[in-house]
Structures are given as structure tokens and as C-alpha cells.
Amino acid sequence: MIADPHPSGLTLKAAGRDNAAMPSTAPTPLHTLLTHGPLLLQAPMAGSQGSALALAVCQAGGIGALPAAMLAPEALTQELTRLSQGTNRPWNVNFFCHTPPEPDAAREARWRETLAPFYAEAGLDIDAVPAGAGRVPFSHTVADLVEPFRPPIVSFHFGLPAPDLLARVKGWGSVVLSSATTVEEALWLEAHGVDAVIAQGIEAGGHRGMFRTDDLTTQVGTFALLPQIVAAVNVPVIAAGGIADAAGVRAALALGAAGVQVGTAYLCSDEALTSPIHRAALQSEAARHTQLTTLFSGRPARGIVNRLMRELGPLNPAAPAFPTATAAIAPLRAHGEKQGSGDFSPLWSGQNARGCRSAPAADITRELLQGFPAVARHVVIFRATARALDAEYSATAAQLRELALTRFGCLDFVAVTEGDQEVALSYWPDEASIRAWKQHADHLMAQQLGRERWYAGYSVEVAAITRHYHRPAPAQA
Fold first, then answer.
1. DSSP state of 200
2. Where would one find coiled-coil regions in this protein (predicted)?
3. Which of 189, 299, 304, 461 could form a disulfide with 322 if both were Cys (CB 3.0 to 4.6 A apart)?
């Protein structure tokens, strides 16, 4: 069952793209992304993850994401290198596209005055705190770093970048996503060129993606927002907010979602960088009480209620514009966490944290994928006449089967041998996954050995599956 599994004439690539010049992970156009299998997106979570979480999600069959808004140039390049070299499946890199505020010394002074009692209690000098943004919007400078990697997916929060920047991203062949928290925002995103809309319900943890209004009364729950956006736009819609298990996935799909985005459920995964204090809060009864707050950054974001939110009020008007509120909070956070306290930490969490548990991200991903109908769209049919099948053959065949199932999205792989005749069937969500598997170095070496040692002859067919019938086995007595 080791041979070229793809007709030589078939190619799948984005228009205007030279595959020979690209890194190992080829970008995926939208039509391919939508047929790549279940659209389970891991939400980008700045400060709580890096590429390790994204890769674990990808390798388990989901779409991992890298939050890039807080990464320095060198760190961004390193993380993109790890992602592009670590998986052949689609992955997402996420950026903010806010407009930096003009300096406002009076507002900053009011903010520091508000925080002064906490500084005095901690024995910290508030006058020593430098002002700073902490987060930068997507720009041509950032795009220069990203362009060599041509990410399969680029997503944005707080709208979209300027038209020339957006055109540049689309020129890479990247699928463009952005979050909408209202129908109006979804229509705006569609009109300005997104390939798919993320419908972010108010249950979602972290920053609200709202960008057409500051009115929090416009923000509604995922399962109220989702069907309205599905009815209003002509692009795929991805549900986000409050989805923590397979049942939530099924509910979103029933309301018309093309896929789902999940964040909080991954915050306590083995690969997450979530602090011990944050993990403990997520797995405690405190996680039942979350609130939107502007205290930690200047924009509404959902987190577990803590001392700072209780004593100042979660939406205190003294907090300066995003993202300048962060600078004066940072020393209080650092001091508190040294004492084992999350009183001044942004304990980001969605309203539904019950799926947040300590486990490998791959396990969490596979459980969420149970909410999607498993659909094989292509089958590779391999027939061979054996010449001499030795121990090395058996080990290689097992290795390639495992590679197909765990890294390249193969849904099932069965083989039967009778005498010198062998037939192997492998089932796949799309042709791109088949091609990626075929081009892996281990597979190329196995093909060569098959021709030279193991097979007298073989044939390969790649067929589309147009119908599926299923009769469950009778229950065991």
C-alpha cells in the first residue's frame, strides 16, 4: 500500500501562486479550506499560547491559530517558521487592526490617579511606570515579515486593515477572516472583502471584536447572532462564543454555521502558556462569574471577575483608550502574581468554561470534532502485486498509515492481502490532504522502495465519493 496516491496531472493551488517558491505549508484558498474537513478553528489567545498549541490542534485535525498582535518582530518570525514547517494542514495567524489613539496626558493622569491606592498598597512607584501601547495594529512593516510565509489563513480583530494592506494579504492567496459582533458589522466585512465572517457572541472570552459601535447593548449571544448573520451574508459564517463541547458544535452547525471557533476550552491544555494562577481560576467556581471589562486594555474584554473589577467597576470610564490602559496595570499584575494572586490579572474566559480542562490539545480537538459529521470525500484505491514483503515493509506501511491518520487528515485506512495481491483503501476529506501526504519525505522514500523491492506492479485510483450508505451493526447481547 505504498505508492504514488495521486494522478500526476492534478494540482491544487491558489491563483497566481508559484508553489515552487513557497514554504512547506502551501496556502489554502477558501474553496479548498471549506472542503478540507471540519472547520474547527482554535481561537487565537494572545498571552496564553504560541505555535505549540496551534500545531497540536492542526495535527489533530483542527485549524490552529497564532495570535500575533503582541509579538515582537523576531518572535513573530520564529513562530511563523515553526508553524510553516510543522504542519501541512491549514493554520491561521491573527492580527489586530485598531487605530492607535492620540496621546492624552490628562486621561492617562486620571487613570494613574485611579490606580494610585493600589500602587501605594503594593509599595510601588506609579511615577516610574512608562506609558506604552503593548499591542500594535497590522501594518506594511508587519506584512513584510509575514509575506514570505504566505499563511493559509489571516484573521483580523476590530475590523479589517486598510484596503491596500488587505489587497496585499489577498495577493498571498490567504483566506481572510474577521470577527463580527452584529449583523451590521458582518455586512460591512462582506462588503469589504472577507472570505468568511466569525460571528462572535457575547459569551466569548477575551476582547470583543466590535468595531462599528461602542454600544455594548448591541452585543448578543452566539445562538441569537449566528442565524441572523447567516441569513444576512453570502459568505461562510463561523460561530464563536460559548462553544465548549461537541454538543455546542452540533448546535452551531444546526443554525447554519460553516464551522466553529473555540478558545476557552484550550486555555488549560498542556500546550497553552496560561499561567498557574489563570488556570486555577478557570478550573474553580470563580469561572462561573465573568464580566466585560475595559480595565486591562481599554476595550471591552470578557474575563473572570477579580478584585480590580469589583473595586473599580469593570467598565470604569477612567480607563484610557485601547491599548494604553495596559501599561499602568502591568506592574500591579506582576506584583500580585508574585504573591500568588490574580487580583490584578486579566483572567480571560468565556462564559462557558466547563470544557476547560488539563489535557493535551489534541484530545480536546478530537472531542470537539465529534460534533462534526465525519465525511470522506475522496478515496485512494491502491492495488498491487507483491514481489517480496519483508519486515521493513511491514514497519514502513504501519508508519505511513499512522502518518496519514494523525498528521494529514486521513479519516480511515484499511488494507487486505490475499496471496500476492494487496488492496488498500484510504479515505480523505480532500485532494489537498492526499497530495500533502504523498509529498512527505517518508512517503517518497517508501515509493522508491516499493518500486525497487516490494512490488512487481501496482495501480492507484483517486475517486470522489458521491454517496454514503450506513447500516449500524446490531447491538451486542
1. E
2. none
3. 299
Neighbours of 192 (CB within 10 A): 13
pTM for this prediction: 0.76
Distance CA 261, CA 424 (A): 35
Residues 376, 178: Cα–Cα separation, whole Å: 28
Q: How many C-beta neighbours within 10 Å does residue 73 have? A: 11
Q: Over pLDDT 70: what percentage of the chain?
A: 88
Beta carbons within 8 Å of 477's beta carbon, 6+ residues apart: none
Compute the distance between CA of residue 431 and CA of residue 464 in angstroms, rounded to an integer. Answer: 9
Q: How many CA atoms lie within 13 A of 61 on its CB side?
A: 24
Query: Could you tell me the CA-to-CA distances from 349 to 3, 198, 274, 291 in Å, in that order?
Result: 47, 18, 11, 9
> Residue ranges of the domains in the chain?
19-369, 378-464
The separation between CA 263 and the C-alpha centre of its own chain, rounded to angstroms, equals: 8
User: If you write DSSP's letter for every residue of 393-451 in order, what string do you get?
Assistant: HHHHHHHHHHHHHHHS---EEEEEEETTEEEEEEEES-HHHHHHHHHSHHHHHHHHHII
Average pLDDT, the chain: 88
Half-sphere exposure in the Cβ direction for 465 (13 Å, CA) = 19
Q: How far is CA 364 from CA 42, 245, 361, in A?
A: 10, 9, 5
Residue 36 confidence class, pLDDT cut points 50, 70, 90: low
Q: Specify the CATH class of 378-464 in words.
A: alpha beta
* Rounded (5°) CA angle 42-47-52: 50
Question: Using one digit for the tens of pLDDT, what is the confidence trace for 227-282?
Answer: 999 999 999 999 999 999 999 999 999 999 999 999 999 999 999 999 999 999 99
Distant-in-sequence, close-in-space partners of 231: CB < 8 Å, separation ≥ 6: 256
Helical packing angle, 51-59 and 73-86, nearest 10°: 20
> 3-state SS string over 56-123?
HHHHCCCECEEECCCCCHHHHHHHHHHHHHHCCCCCEEEEECCCCCCCCHHHHHHHHHHHHHHHHHHC
Give all strands of the β-sheet with 175-180 in edge-to-edge order: 40-42, 259-262, 237-240, 196-200, 175-180, 153-157, 92-96, 65-67
Please give the CATH number for the structural domain made up of 19-369: 3.20.20.70
